[in-house]
Amino acid sequence: MPVLNQNLFSESESDIQEPYPFEVVSADGIVGSCTTFSTRAKISSEIFKQSQTDDEMLRIVFVASQVEREKAALGDNYDPKLIEKLSPMQWCILERIARSRKLGEVTIGKMSLKVTKENAMKLHYHRKVMLKLGLITKQSYTTKSVGQNHNGLLFHIPRFYNLRQNKVQLIIELIVKVLKERPHCMAPADEIIQLIKNDFVNYKRTFQYPEFSRIIERDKTVLYSERKSYHILSKA
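Structure (tokenized):
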């Protein structure tokens, strides 16, 4: 029996400063999130060359053009007409998800889409638009904070999609694999339980998981030659 690693992510207990404070900007064809946009000034190459002190250099910010940022986020799917379908808030959320690359952006925790300060209903609508357009992917996500597990959602842009599975999902995947190797995709329930309980103390949770009922049929009864009844699990 292979050891199943639980993909459970812990929330840091220390206060971590948000590296990308969220503030929607939409002005003169420029859309994005930036808290210092109104205080920035465009400088010429000559002024840049004259900047010699460390303080002056630290105050200089390089920003890609709007089109280049759109191409970086959408990659091969770049289409100006597609961008037009997004509101400034939706674009800022998409750009934040793209920036996270394979780590992805979550809906729960200190550093998550909560930084948008949008309520859950509005965030759901924004994500729904981007999911429909195929701009982002969605999967379930579990994080541990102060000893408690919290379920949320994890988002990536398609080219950085990275499958994350919690332990229950990994066990369901293992059960399906075992059932596929059996005649008629069936096996006695006690055999399946014995297979997983040594590696998963709370294995009963697996049978209560909605995805389990959707994929695997249980509590069938068949009669063997001994005329005894057995509960089995079969791949639905």
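Confidence is low (pLDDT under 50) at residues 1-6, 225-231. The chain has ten helices and nine strands.
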